[in-house]
């Protein structure tokens, strides 16, 4: 290093030299541009967070949040919801026997009837959900276990489903359609609702089974293979039904071709895996009466007829049926309203505290700054 | 005998090597022969120690015949020397001849590798050390990998993150096993493996551990390292773009050579500075003199200096053109001699470079002789006086004074033949000087004209007294001549010049100190030119061109005890023995011929002269000039003979040789006749005292390490306010004995401790010194090289360090390059502080490399320092801005960014972690993988980088006017372990909020996994961006664009992605989820609430801190809002407050978070 130093010196002499030899002005100076950006002098807004400056913000938040919270709370309270557990854990439960006997490969049909009473009338459209508890639809390997291109109607995927579907990929050397654990564990209880008229007659309530899935799912994401070929049994002929299923995918709703196969809405709803282990899924919609005068569901006695197929005992799960009206904020949930009210109050309180602090300490600063 | 060319790498110990003039010495060579008849060889050691004067080396006697070529064949002796070591000043050994006769030698016979042979046609010797064993290599401790302090700290924090990750994964693994254990039969949602078997729960938990690592690995901020690099690039861009750090004269910006330690600039606690060329320009300028009681102000000269300093570009270019003159024949000869094909080229570039140097008024390479320093415009009154005396009598105080100036020194005259290439420019300056000194020679006119131009520009006609020979052929400078119609006076005939300079084409002086150079050039200005110096004669040319050849009888060299030097000569005309002495005023004044001591024989005139001179001296000192007194003594033949005998005896003595020599010197140096005194200005670079003061106020300790003499160093230290006459208690350590050193250390330490413990004393000090508390910082330590090495030995080092801690200023003189670096290392390691070393020369390279931050001052002394440095600046004053503004900015920016990055990653990853509690610890992510990746890569990467590059808490002008703000960086307040953990805690809190508010909102509903994740992702984005918004201190357009752009990018990308991707990314199903969510009012309600709740604590805390306990920075920001006039007033008030406020806390070991400033 020392040895080469002399050369380094001389070489280094080159750059000012080159400036000189070009004469003044002809060589670009290395002087940095005197621009606001390069000199870090861009005009800047420099907020200073002190009690005085942020007081309005706190009060504003308080004033905005509390009404929102109240609104949410009221809305939530206006939503009518009814929930009934029909798992059949208790001996007294009507579905106890079904729950005891049942396993996936049972072939017998077990039905039970669960009576319940509505105290209030349900207006407008009533949404009928089934709820499952302790069902981890969000388990990582469960969530993965599907083939979206198969469900999207892709022919090749239909016959050779994705490896993600293992071990529910093939059955008896035939590809499973729909493959995967999600499809395999499709909720297959059938729920029917009867109104017990005070005179003792049972009136079946009309349950609409379409319109329960997202429009985009039904029309874009889920497609039957074969396009317009309406004969689904031909389309699915080289496939096998999922092992837990009683009937093949093209038999889900033989009456309505627009609700059969992969685009069966019950199936689509199930395939949208729930985020949390306790969830509900939309099952049917009870449409409001045309005349608008009588409530959709008047108060009174009802009976829930369950075709009990779905086993939950292995994971200590619960099955529920939920009837709910819906508002713009979805189902009944008082949490958000309460949270808004609380946060709004806290902000308001903080605002008051800051106001006091500002008067006590902030003034001192101000006076020092301005009047001194 | 035949010489062969060999590469350096092939040189081995024991080889005979011949080196020619101007060649670099390839190894440590024991000098056996030179072409010089006196057996000396000059070498320049600037590459080693930065000293620019020539060193004389002598041959080991008896192995060659002067005047004849060296005969290595005849060398049959054995060379015995010590083992290789790094001490540049000690070398011992002997040569044993076959007949067992031993000849000793020392360092003065050793040519050191890396030095350059000068003034000697050739030198030959035997290699004693080669390659890595040479002293220069041993002094060269290789490069050190530097890693910034923040990064070191950050790395431990990354380890903490890994630990956190480990625990989180462990929780996941345990949770998963336990969760699996709860099932007696496997439920349908647990997917068996391919064969339908279920993994045992323990094994599944084990696997889950690694799955979790993959899921949560973002916890370890890998992107942080990339971002830091980007941020540093940005920071460096802005540093180099700073127009304030641009040097117009050298056309050079600040260079950032190290890309990774910008923020260290903001944490410096100790500054180690070289002196020569760093603090000073290394320009000794003759300013004034007083001769026999009459003061000559040299106003013209002062005016010239003022003009030259202010010379603008135009003149520089003129100067430059002039330096590019045709080569003199002699130089051409030299070219072919050295056989360097590129020589002509390099010569021109060297000259080019010189142009900027001349213009910048920087130090010329050697002998301290740029025109600025060397050219002295004679005082007209004094010129007349000299002329009068010259005309009438050939002796007189004026002549004596100038003779003393000319000969009483150790300056070596070198000739153009021996000139180095890079001194080309200087020879011109000398040429110009000759004219000034009323000499005239061809080819050297142009510089005068440039000087004249300066004068004219200033509206003066100082050039009038000078001559221009109209007959001079205008070969090289026609343009200049047209400018210079003013020069008129020709004092010398060409013939005479040719006679007197038949051999020496041009005269160049190699002075040991810049003072001597300044003085001899001053003498030259008045026509007293030393033209030759040999060990036995010194020849001076008088204004009337007569040559006086003095016989040198003895030289009593300078030493720091006597503080004077004398030369005893025999006057060629009168044959008198005359002693000329120069020295510090006290050293001369007390020895004047009975002026004060014997009142009875008071010589009234002499007394008056002494009194007047003393008055002038006092005035010079007040003006910051370095003063030297000149005296003369006529010694009778008899007296001299008697003295000389004693002297000879002392010279040959072995025991206590130095003491005896000193005694003899003292014996003869008395009864002086005072001739006069000079005032020399050692120009500090501009704004050096201010810079040092600012660095001090910023809490930095400034040390000066110099190879220079203690006297010079102390002088500079005072003039640059490193030491203060009134406030500092200066302890000087200079001893050769370790016991003494130890005693002194202990004594001083005791004293220092006592004084710092007594509060009473402090109050007194405070009262006396208007608000400055001094006790701790009023101690200055001056220590010289040998003492330093003793103090740094193992048994004393603790005490030394302890003492240094108490010192406000430490000045180390006479230190070697290695010592410089070991001092830096010592302080860095023992005190665990951030150190900065700044220097300009090759001798500072080690120090620069050893320090945490090395700064090279370019454009003065070669490029080695710059090459070794991390940052290169051109002026010392730039350090202030570099540290206080850029260092502080870079530090606080980077610290904030790093903290923010940790926070960001933890906050985001924890969302996923909380979800594990609700998915059976199965490592499900509720956010689409692509969005997760893009979240870190795209949506939240730009804001922190911009934050790290552009955030600005306090403006540069405020930072400069309140250096105290720098202290936050020194105490690492921006990034502490506590800051880190607070950020992590905040991240945990925010992630809890971001997870659980949506969780409670959607719990029990029919929400799908990714519909559930989308609001969380959005909320996280808002929280993370707005968290940064709280931290950002100043919002420029760029900030707005990037912040808003990031949010927009998130929405655009997410919407596009979830619109396009129907089944492209199994299993995440992002299709239409974002659209669905954005159509739901709940989404907005959840996002708003969550963001507010997540940021509320931090925001409130900021507000409370801003109101109740504002940091100094906040105070400074409030100051910036004031109108300028009020701001200045407040800054002054604040300074007063801080001075009284900070010091008590400093005493209690730097717990200075007291809210003093804004109170």
Automatic annotation (TrEMBL), chain A:
Organism: Phoxinus phoxinus
Protein name: Cell cycle control protein
The UniProt record lists the keyword Transmembrane: yes
Compartment list: Apical cell membrane; Cytoplasmic vesicle, Secretory vesicle membrane; Golgi apparatus; Membrane
Membrane disposition: Multi-pass membrane protein
Recorded superkingdom: Eukaryota
Transmembrane segments: 48-74, 335-357
Biased composition (Polar residues): 150-160
Family: Belongs to the CDC50/LEM3 family.
InterPro entries (UniProt xref): CDC50/LEM3_fam (IPR005045)
One Pfam assignment: CDC50
Keywords: Cell membrane, Cytoplasmic vesicle, Disulfide bond, Glycoprotein, Golgi apparatus, Lipid transport, Membrane, Transmembrane, Transmembrane helix, Transport
Principal subcellular localization: membrane
Gene Ontology cellular component terms for the protein in this record: apical plasma membrane; endoplasmic reticulum; Golgi apparatus; transport vesicle membrane
Automatic annotation (TrEMBL), chain B:
Record-level GO BP terms: phospholipid translocation
Binding-site residues for ATP, renumbered to this chain: 274-276, 516, 558, 582, 626, 706-708, 814, 820, 843-844
Gene Ontology molecular function: ATP binding; ATP hydrolysis activity; flippase activity; magnesium ion binding
PANTHER family per record: PHOSPHOLIPID-TRANSPORTING ATPASE VB, PROBABLE PHOSPHOLIPID-TRANSPORTING ATPASE
This protein's name: Phospholipid-transporting ATPase
Region (Disordered): 467-496
Family: Belongs to the cation transport ATPase (P-type) (TC 3.A.3) family. Type IV subfamily.
A family per Pfam: Cation_ATPase
Alphabetically ordered keywords of this record: ATP-binding, Endoplasmic reticulum, Magnesium, Membrane, Metal-binding, Nucleotide-binding, Translocase, Transmembrane, Transmembrane helix
Transmembrane segments: 158-179, 204-226, 915-939, 980-1001, 1007-1030, 1037-1060, 1082-1101
Organism for this UniProt entry: Phoxinus phoxinus
Cofactor(s) listed: Mg(2+)
EC main group: translocase
Subcellular localization, as worded in the UniProt entry: Endoplasmic reticulum membrane; Membrane
Binding positions for Mg(2+) per the UniProt entry: 274, 276, 840, 844
Enzyme Commission designation: 7.6.2.1
Composition bias, Polar residues: 479-491
Residue ranges constituting the P-type ATPase C-terminal domain according to the UniProt record: 866-1110
Membrane topology: Multi-pass membrane protein
Database matches in InterPro entries: ATPase_P-typ_cyto_dom_N (IPR023299), ATPase_P-typ_P_site (IPR018303), ATPase_P-typ_TM_dom_sf (IPR023298), ATPase_P-typ_transduc_dom_A_sf (IPR008250), HAD-like_sf (IPR036412), HAD_sf (IPR023214), P-type_ATPase_IV (IPR006539), P_typ_ATPase (IPR001757)
Catalysed reactions listed for this entry: a beta-D-glucosyl-(1<->1')-N-acylsphing-4-enine(out) + ATP + H2O = a beta-D-glucosyl-(1<->1')-N-acylsphing-4-enine(in) + ADP + phosphate + H(+); ATP + H2O + phospholipidSide 1 = ADP + phosphate + phospholipidSide 2
Catalytic machinery residues: 274 (4-aspartylphosphate intermediate)
Matches recorded under NCBIfam families: ATPase-Plipid (TIGR01652), ATPase_P-type (TIGR01494)
GO cellular component, one term: plasma membrane
